[in-house]
Amino acid sequence: MEAHTGESSKFALITGASSGIGEATALRLATEKFGLLLTARRQDRLESLAKRCLELGAKSVPVRKLDVSDRSQVDDFFSDPKLLPLFSKMHVLVNNAGLAKGVDKMSSASMDDWQVMLDTNVVGLLAVTRQALPHIIKNRGHIVNLGSVAGRWSYPGGAVYSATKAAVRAVTEGLRMDVQGTGVRVTNIAPGMVETEFSDVRLGDEAAAKKIYEGMTPLSAADIADCICWSLSRPAHVNIQEMIVFPTDQAGIGYVHRG
Ligand SMILES: NC(=O)c1ccc[n+]([C@@H]2O[C@H](COP(=O)([O-])OP(=O)(O)OC[C@H]3O[C@@H](n4cnc5c(N)ncnc54)[C@H](OP(=O)(O)O)[C@@H]3O)[C@@H](O)[C@H]2O)c1
């Protein structure tokens, strides 16, 4: 059975590659000699990441500015004639772009924040997946979606973020059924606390974000990149449906041991 890593002719498209889990996954796949197509809104970050990926052995690393929550940008991206040869080699899609905004309870939370989370985490993921699917099906490829433990267990101030990640889980499950028989694999990676820019983005306050991880050892972005790459590297007949990964210091949402 064919493994999906270590083959230089293969391309992976990663959304939200400019930081955190997306960036770590790009670096990890670079060491496995993948070609990479890296996207996010911050193109300067992608350009310096691309240089590091090439140094690590990636075959080629084009980058594109892409806001997944903007439907017309997604449509233009997938119909860019310069990118079509890459799409035809695309075996892996990592739907990683996502975010949480705010921690207010529903009675006082911002509708605008809800809209951004829904548009990015759900509608954006759907738009990219829909456009990528014909290529992924043709190549008997693999789609990895970034869910979250929040998609299983909600928490105060997290209802809408949790709803978006529950949607990612549901979409992953349904898609797996829709592509049955094509050889395509679909995986949901559901991490607990990972120290990235996630909490900075959520709180808009670097010091408050740092406090979240105080006295405990969170997961690193590289830990989750490992999980993603392990799922990709299974033989073609093995489909990892879901991985729920907590740091040892986090027994559940809200159950954090601080030494
Ligand atoms: N950190 C955690 O504790 C944790 C736990 C469970 C799940 N997750 C999930 O893991 C994924 C990655 O998060 P992370 O922890 O690595 O956070 P991060 O460091 O903030 O990275 C998020 C990435 O998403 C991109 N992004 C955000 N909105 C976007 C948009 N509209 N269009 C395109 N790209 C967009 C960002 O790039 P630009 O700003 O440059 O666009 C960035 O590269 C997310 O889906 C998140 O929900 C994180």
Low-confidence stretches: 1-7
**Approximate shape:** globular
> Beta fraction of the residues?
15-25%
Kindly provide the radius of gyration, computed on alpha-carbon positions and rounded to a whole number of angstroms.
Answer: 18 Å
- How far from one another are the termini? 45 Å
Structural class: alpha/beta
Summarize the SSE layout with pairings.
Layout: E1 11-14, H1 20-31, E2 35-40, H2 43-56, E3 63-65, H3 71-78, H4 84-87, E4 90-95, H5 111-138, E5 142-146, H6 159-178, E6 185-191, H7 198-203, H8 206-212, H9 221-233, E7 242-245, E8 250-252, E9 255-256
Commentary on this structure:
- The N and C termini lie far apart (45 Å).
- The strands form two sheets. The protein has a seven-stranded parallel β-sheet with strand order 3-2-1-4-5-6-7, sandwiched between helices. It has a two-stranded antiparallel sheet with strand order 8-9.
- Helix 1 (20-31) packs parallel to helix 2 and helix 5 runs parallel beside helix 6.
- The protein has helices at residues 20-31, 43-56, 71-78, 84-87, 111-138, 159-178, 198-203, 206-212, 221-233, and strands spanning 11-14, 35-40, 63-65, 90-95, 142-146, 185-191, 242-245, 250-252, 255-256.
- Strand 4, helix 5 (111-138) and strand 5 form a beta-alpha-beta unit.
- The longest helix has 28 residues, at 111-138.
- The protein contains nine helices and nine strands.
- The protein is α/β, with parallel strands linked by helices.
- The protein is globular, with a radius of gyration of 18 Å.
- The chain has a single domain, classed as 3-Layer(aba) Sandwich (Rossmann fold).
- The relative contact order is 0.15.
- Bound molecules: NADP nicotinamide-adenine-dinucleotide phosphate.
